[in-house]
Amino acid sequence: MVKREFNTTGICNPTKHYMVDIGERLVEIRKLVDAGKYFCINRARQYGKTTTLSALRKFLSNDYEVISLSFQKIGSSGYRSEGAFVQVLSRIFLDLYEFERVSIPENSLYEFDRINKDEERAASLDGLFRVFRRWCREAERRLVLMIDEVDSATNNQVFLDFLAQLRDAYLDREDKGIPTFQSVILAGVTDIKHLRAKIRPDEERKTNSPWNIAADFDIDMSLSEVGIRGMLDEYEADHHTGMDALAMARSLREYTSGYPYLVSRLCQLMDGVVSKKLGCVEAWTEQGLDEAIKTLLSDGDDTLFGSLMGKLTSYPQLKRQLRDILMKGDVISWQPYDEEQAQLRMYGFIKNINGSVAVANRIFEMLLYHHFLGETTKNDAFRSDALVHKSIFINEDQSLNMPLILEHFVETQRRIHGNADEKFLEEEGRERFLTYLAPIINGTGTYSVEEQTRDKSRMDVVVHYLGRRYVVELKIWRGPRYNAEGERQIMAYLEYFGLSTGYMVSFNFNKYKTPGVERVHIADKVLFEATV
Asked: Are 264 and 6 contacting, i.e. CB atoms less than 8 angstroms apart?
């Protein structure tokens, strides 16, 4: 029996890999195919598109003749002219017949072979689609065309012409009953449905897409908590780690929002790197997950992260917006037709939360916080002070001495900036604290920010350090009543995480304030309140 593993490259195979059951997703996609829809599966990189297409091909094969192509196989020379593109496609169909046993009528095979052998200038899309029509008419089963990796073709005019021919064939089927494909599925990162391009070289750029006949594809391809747990149960049956599969599935979902690559990569790290470091039992605990997240975020060669950060470089305005959302609590409205937002949405970086832009998941947030804090030098004095005193902030049992961290932060703020004005502190205070915290926990811990508390007034930071949690509320002082409300809110978070001690940092602009750290008892909880 083949030993299964977690997979983050290529197609996932349930006989070789631990994977979430996507059966329900396939049923939903089949409904679109049965209805004769043409549609796009456009999702971010490493979001399970190719695995889904592979499983869908098998799922449909009893009732349809499924033609599965990948445009990644077509080199740049295949787009140099219409004839070259048509001949490459003809060869692909000949190979499908010879090597993958796709059923193609003899007359159509003859035509594909003739097109391939003709002079390049004689080959045309019109001729190719005449072959398609005859094939669809003579085929014993209805044809479904699936094309993966369409991104490699979107900048080529001949591909746009190919889309236009598919669109026209679809319209002729609906209007005149002329036979064509039952369904066409295009997969890639690029949203072909909203592609704005010329249909002919001599035309002006049009606002309508050559793929405007496509149906909406709103099927959720993220991994659910239930699905993740099923995958972990299979792993546990093989490895007997004693993990709490339900709790681990919930944590994985919370950190990743079900992004397939992130879920699989974290599991892969816990199974491999973390198990070697902590042991196979501890690897599948909260501490093991923290270690996996730290390892993932410190990997400078992760191709997904590299791609995302490259997009931020290409769209500096949206990068500034994301920085303001995370560091200042700004609310940026969701603009579906904004080009910069569309790009980051397409690459899986952002999502719509109640009409506002939000980062897609906590892992990406942590990546961005680390990047934003590291790219500026304006708070280097805080970073340097934290590094100088780092050793005294770690207790003998390897826990964090958070009260001492707060005391030093308050003193560093007083020493460096004194009584700065309110506007300056309100924009900078929280960034300074995170800058101070980061070098203390880097290499051992991470932190995340609770989404529902990230606004102009307050932010709850959860520090993850060697399996322990530390909840720190950062807020602007608005008076005793507001402070009492903040205390009640952090008490609720302590209950949620099963903690008895919490921490608050209040940025107070009252000139009569008394900076320092005060220990407060509230019911059965202890709260260390720092006033800056």
From this structure: yes
Residue 389 to residue 444: CA distance in whole angstroms: 16
Size of the chain, expressed as the number of residues it contains:
532
For the sheet containing 501-507, what is the strand order?
445-449, 458-465, 468-476, 501-507, 525-531, 516-522
CA dihedral 374, 377, 380, 382 (to 10 degrees): -70
Rounded Cα gap, residues 446 and 297, in angstroms: 9
Give per-residue pLDDT as tens, 216-239: 999 999 999 999 999 999 999 999
| Ramachandran assignment for 354, one of left (phi > 0), alpha (psi -120 to 50 degrees), beta (any other) | left
The reported pLDDT for the residue numbered 336 is 85
Given a contact cutoff of 8 angstroms between Cβ atoms, the answer to whether 294 and 465 are in contact is: no
Structural domain spans, the chain? 21-194, 225-297, 303-363, 378-531
By the 10 Å C-beta count (0-12 exposed, 13-18 middle, 19+ buried), 472 is classed as buried
| Closest by Cα among 218, 214, 80, 99 to 147 | 214
Q: What angle do CA 269, 274, 276 make, to 5 degrees?
A: 120
Q: Do residues 370 and 376 make contact, with C-beta atoms less than 8 angstroms apart?
A: no
Question: Whole-prediction pTM value?
Answer: 0.88
Range among 41-45, 316-320, 423-427, 452-456 rated most confident: 41-45
Cα–Cα distance for residue pair 19/33, rounded to 1 Å: 24
Strand ranges in 251-340 using DSSP code E only, listed in sequence order: none
Q: Does domain 21-194 have CATH number 3.40.50.300?
A: yes
What DSSP string runs through 46-94? TSSHHHHHHHHHHHHTTTSEEEEEEGGG--GGGGSSHHHHHHHHHHHHH
Question: CB atoms < 10 A from the CB of 46, how many?
Answer: 21
Contacts of 48 by beta carbon, 8 Å cutoff, 6+ apart: 12, 22, 221, 260, 261
| Angle at the Cα of 293 from the Cα atoms of 189 and 460, rounded to 5 degrees | 100
pLDDT band for 121, please (50, 70, 90 cuts): very high
Q: How far are the Cα atoms of 46, 114, 271, 299 from residue 304, in angstroms, in the given order?
A: 8, 42, 20, 11
